[in-house]
UniProtKB/TrEMBL annotation:
Domain ABC transporter as annotated: residue spans: 20-253
Keywords, alphabetical: ATP-binding, Cell inner membrane, Cell membrane, Membrane, Nucleotide-binding, Transport
PROSITE patterns: ABC_TRANSPORTER_1, ABC_TRANSPORTER_2
Record Gene3D superfamilies: P-loop containing nucleotide triphosphate hydrolases
Name of the molecule in the record: Vitamin B12 import ATP-binding protein BtuD
Amino acid sequence: MATHNLRVVSDRGAARGPLLQVDGVSLEYRTEERIVRATHRVSFDVHAADRFVLLGPSGCGKSTLLKAVAGFVPPCEGEIRLDGERVQAPGPDRIVVFQEFDQLPPWKTVRQNVMFPLRKSRRMSRAEADECAMHCLDKVGLAGFADAYPHTLSGGMKQRVAIARALAMRPKVLLMDEPFAALDALTRRRMQEELLALWDDAAFTLLFVTHSIEEALVVGSRILLLSPHPGRVRAELNSHQFSLASQGSAEFQAAAQRIHQMLFDVPADTADTTDTQVPRERPAARQYRGKPS
Ligand SMILES: Nc1ncnc2c1ncn2[C@@H]1O[C@H](COP(=O)(O)OP(=O)(O)OP(=O)(O)O)[C@@H](O)[C@H]1O
């Protein structure tokens, strides 16, 4: 596997060793008619406080990898370890925030939605769970909507509730599967900003799936590039230096273009950087053969 530094920086928490280890993991779906291989021998390490992004084209197995880390899909080959323990089932140490806006039970208020997993996991008394829920809702700017029902909220607000609910559980790893993909561009940008502000505050460990190169550079401190279906590791990058503020800069554009080339091996002089979304439909790309200059 090639490891590239867009800029060399030290890894926060690296001294403690990896928190999450994905080691040679192949994932398959078995139906009566056929076997679909979603990923092939994928390996990566996530350290505490990393914002680790899985980036690749549609169908390369990003969501399936996230589900495997969550414990919903067992590897057919390889192993996933969290804090040295083999992942074999879902657990409260790994919480997933999905793209869909309907992940909040509609019959519960915002506050009840955040309290529910805290109470269900028997971590806290009702009063403690209530206090924790209000604290987390305050962090995402929704304390004033604690007694509202989800159907009265915008898509962005629902995603904020889902994030508050996840962070309230203090998971070892927060798993996010294209959480902002269904939002309009302005809201998406604001949500990215808020997620980074939350991370500045709490330095949680994030595993984030996207097919947007720009979002990967903004949100991620490290990025794993996956090849088209079935997903194989193409490269791993450090991207700590980028933020929303650097998005229009020449350095940011150059990094986006380089990632595009690494994913699709497009010659530099023909690469189109006006649209840096990883295409949803694309024929199998040629293998990436070397480190970019
Ligand atoms: N439940 C399923 N049964 C059979 N095949 C599946 C199932 N879910 C996903 N797949 C297949 O596994 C492969 C990986 O899918 P996955 O959703 O993980 O990709 P992805 O990279 O997250 O794509 P996207 O960006 O479009 O969400 C695809 O070929 C897909 O068709």
